[in-house]
Amino acid sequence: MQLAEKHALSEAEYLALEEAAPLRHEYVGGEAYAMSGGTLRHNRITANTLFTLMSNLKGKPCQVFMNDVKLHVARDHAYYYPDVMVTCSEQATAANESQVVSDPVLVVEVLSPSTEATDRREKLAAYRHLPSLQEYALISQDTQQVEIYRRQGDTECAPGSGNAHEPPPEGAKSFSGRPVERLERWLYITYEPGDTVEFAGVGVTLPISDLYAGTDIAT
Q: Within 13 Å and on the Cβ side, how many CA atoms surround 115?
């Protein structure tokens, strides 16, 4: 028996199907993946994050969106639905009919058992390809913990060397005369109970407890 070859969706086909779909789907490399629902705690943490960011960014040229707005990662031919994201582009002064953002400065995912592996690996790798992104935050829903990957500029290394290093002194030659590649550096930060969380990319700080207000792990 011959199995029928699976049809890879184009981005245009995905967007057209998603417009009419009763459930949300994320799209990666020609395939669409249905999204599952979340717990009450997950929902409340997401709402707390959204409210805190909106309150602190009121009057600034930024927009805060939650999980009904798509994030397009053009390099990976992917569309995701982050739990919360902030964009501060020139077009962000007023929300419009668009359903897609491509230039966030902050992306936040609230972890859950079904999505944690994807959030930590696939999405981390994809989001780091976004030139605008300054921070990627992962918020635990099981304990008071926030992890942030913060862009720190770039450094240089020889193609294929596998290790980044500080830029060489002026006039220094590259490895074996080969041209150097520019690699971005990301700082990894963990916040725990009692800490003050800093979303430096948007200039917002808050007690970590604010993110967990109204949940059964608030204290």
A: 24
Laid out side by side, the sheet with 25-28 consists of 31-34, 25-28, 78-80, 70-73, 100-101
**Which amino acid belongs to residue 218?**
A
CATH number of 38-70+83-211: 3.90.1570.10
The predicted model scores a pTM of 0.81
Q: Is 175 left (phi over 0), alpha (psi -120 to 50) or beta?
A: beta
SS3 162: coil
Q: How many CB atoms lie under 10 A from the CB of residue 2? A: 4
> How confident is the prediction along the chain (219 residues), in pLDDT tens digits per residue?
343 445 789 999 999 999 989 889 999 989 999 988 789 999 999 999 999 999 999 999 999 999 889 999 999 999 999 999 999 976 666 667 688 999 999 999 999 998 999 999 999 999 999 999 999 999 999 999 999 999 997 544 444 433 333 333 333 333 333 343 445 689 999 999 999 999 999 999 999 999 999 999 998
- Which residues are bridge partners to 74 per DSSP? none
Token pair of 185, please?
Answer: 């550096």
Strands (E), 119-191: 135-139, 146-157, 181-191
- Domain boundaries defined on the chain: 38-70+83-211
Residue 130 CA, chain-centre distance (Å), reads: 9
